[in-house]
Amino acid sequence: MIGDTLGNPVISAWQVAPGVCWIQTSSPYFALRLKKRSDSRLVATGVSGGYLRTYEVPRPLRWARRFMADHQTKLTAANERFSVQERPTSRRKMKLAQRGGLEIRTRQLGDVGKKPNIGDRQF
User: What's residue 83's pLDDT?
Assistant: First the structure.
């Protein structure tokens, strides 16, 4: 029915016309998911404090209910790249990695921009 609202403070939806609903979100995560849909369009943005986007989708309110329920359980955005481990650069390292003899070191968040100290060397 037109005027019915569903959702929570982060994401909510209501029907504005038969077969058309608006979805409003204060989360950049949900806004990205709506932005990537080909059938949605941005109709309003918040200008006074906080993050607020409202999208129009030519779908019924029951679809918006399923959209919100489905997307609240998933953690990756639509069309987002999966993070994968980099492949070893040489054939020797590739064979060692396949056998489990090569430990690939990943850079830790605290290591960014940090220069090693001479005392940190291990012999």
Answer: 55
pLDDT confidence of residue 70:
80
Q: Quick one: CA torsion of 31, 33, 35, 36, rounded to 10 degrees?
A: 160
Rounded CA Rg of the chain: 23
Tokens read off for 77 = 């955005």
pTM value surpassing 0.90 = no
Does residue 74 contact residue 80 with C-beta atoms inside 8 Å?
Answer: no
Q: What local confidence, expressed as pLDDT, does residue 57 receive?
A: 95
Residue holding tokens 């999966």? 82
Domain extent listing, the chain: 1-102
Secondary structure string (H, E, C) spanning 78-112: CCCCCCCCCCCCCHHHHHHHHHCCCCCCCCCHHHC
Identify the burial level of 52 via C-beta atoms within 10 angstroms of its C-beta, where 0-12 means exposed, 13-18 middle and 19 or more buried: middle
Determine which helix (DSSP H) or strand (DSSP E) holds 92, and give its type and residue range.
helix 91-99
